[in-house]
Amino acid sequence: MTRLFEHPPPEILHSSHPAHNLTLVNSDNAPPFRCNGCMEPGCGPRYTYDQGGAGESFDLHTCCALAEEEPTIKHPLFRNLKFTFLVEPTPPVQGRLCDACGDPARGFVYHCSKEDLDLHPCCASLPERILQDGRLFKLQRKASRPCGLCGNNGGRFWAYRSYFDGKAVDLHVACMKEMARLSWNAALENRVGGAQIVRPSEASIESMLESLPANTQSSHGFDQFRRIATSVAGGIISVISGNPAALITAVVGGVLQ
Ligand SMILES: [Zn+2]
Ligand SMILES: [Zn+2]
Ligand SMILES: [Zn+2]
To answer: Start and end of every DC1 domain (predicted)?
Structure first.
């Protein structure tokens, strides 16, 4: 996994933007951005150079900005594999997807040459286990159970699995990213109009969990399970938006490896 930097440096000079220092913006309220490293949307902490006025800013997720410090990583899902940081995917770039979220890999990426796998740096920082209020959500390489968000069975990409009432429930990472994308798009549009920023909405997560089978939803304790899943999904969205510390208190076992 990408390393969690407890004290990220306040300023860095990055090889992808050598003309200026990039400053750490550690605010949850800063506008959303598109990372100039991995090309994926972001929200929350970032390294930035802002030209001011109407000038374009240059932004990097903190995990993307600091990935050169951590050129090789392992992920608990692939214990024997090594992932190497690349500033662009290996050819053919066209059609390369992140094996965690299923979105295109177009920029900074962790690549495993042995199995030809690619991970966005933010996706690589997703923990293997999340323990929230006594419920365990464990990361799987592939979904195989109904997703609590989209209701679809299975999927090629990562999912967090938990159990409710003896039934496995998967939360697709791709579905959580899709939810976040809707908020990102809304926020980016609002920014143009100068309005307030929209954060990924937990209300949308709750309503999507209603796609679980009706007999599950009427079970005792479902409301509590839904609250827990909502909060887990919110944490996962924060991590894939570029805030790897969001889940640190909920993670089981050694994340700092
Ligand atoms: Zn990035
Ligand atoms: Zn990804
Ligand atoms: Zn889904």
So the answer is: 81-124
